[in-house]
Design goal:
Pfam families: Zn_peptidase. The chain has about 250 residues and is mainly alpha-helical. It is built from eight helices and five strands; from the N terminus they run H-H-E-E-E-E-E-H-H-H-H-H-H. Helix 3 crosses helix 4, helix 4 crosses helix 6 and helix 6 runs parallel beside helix 8.
């Protein structure tokens, strides 16, 4: 967690069960799968949807056995290429929404028009940004499946004001960490080497980088450290953000 380490947080028995001792941490490594995503230019809704569909298939095939080993029934997600102003099961997709996971319909919603702007930076940048972001949002789906998000949501009403930010950082860092566990396990089929690996490192370290004002996703240093551990371990065992020391 960002800041000077202090005491680790304490949780109720339910928190211990769902956050600290969740069975996902002992469910083993994320497997490599035969992941083939189309090499398309991400400038149209059709192209983006095709790319997201293919990558989601990789994520679901890799994560399903891990979730099942955690003692939970796997439920597939859905993915939608939308634009600002589109209606989703979690409300209107707003200008600030680049991508998000919606637990109401297990949907991942992506701003396809923004990806065209990423193509202006380069095709590799656009593709890897999409992979990292999609892997993060699917990490939220895993959290939802195994009960982490349910307990996190239950606690939301128990804290006030800026106190929300500390558990939010843990939740977001964990989703990114789950994403990196998948990407590390599938480095070869996704060709995350050379320029593509450097692009991954850049995206995985972003966090609450200026001009971000709310400290809700963790510092770049925290994101870098959690991502590196998960990419190497290729396992959710490296992603128990709930036992990290509180920020001082």
């Amino acid at each position: 967690m960002p800041g000077k380490p202090a005491a680790t947080p304490t949780y109720s028995p339910r928190g211990q069960k769902y956050l600290v001792r969740n069975r996902i941490y002992s469910a083993g490594q994320v497997p490599a799968v035969a992941c083939v995503v189309p090499d398309v230019v991400l400038r149209s809704q059709k192209a983006v949807q095709r790319y997201l569909n293919a990558f989601q298939d990789c994520l679901q095939r890799a994560w399903k056995p891990v979730v099942v080993r955690a003692g939970v029934r796997f439920r597939p997600s859905a993915v939608y290429a939308v634009r600002q102003g589109s209606k989703t099961a979690c409300g209107t997709f707003a200008e600030k929404d680049h991508a998000y996971y919606c637990p109401a319909d297990s949907g991942i919603y992506f701003d396809w028009e923004e990806l065209g702007q990423w193509e202006d930076y380069g095709h590799v940048a656009a593709q890897v940004y999409t992979l990292v972001t999609m892997a993060h949002e699917f990490g939220h789906h895993v959290q939802e499946l195994v009960g982490i998000s349910t307990y996190y949501d239950d606690r939301w009403g128990e804290v006030a004001g800026s106190a929300h930010l500390e558990p939010m950082r843990r939740h977001e860092l964990q989703a990114s960490c789950f994403g990196s566990a998948f990407l590390g396990a599938n480095q070869t089929p996704l060709d995350l080497y050379g320029a593509r690996y450097e692009a991954y490192l850049s995206e995985a370290s972003y966090g609450d980088h200026p001009p971000a004002t709310a400290r809700d996703h963790g510092s770049p240093q925290s994101n870098t450290e959690w991502a590196a551990a998960a990419f190497t371990a290729m396992s959710p065992a490296a992603c128990n953000t709930w036992v990290a020391p509180r920020a001082g």
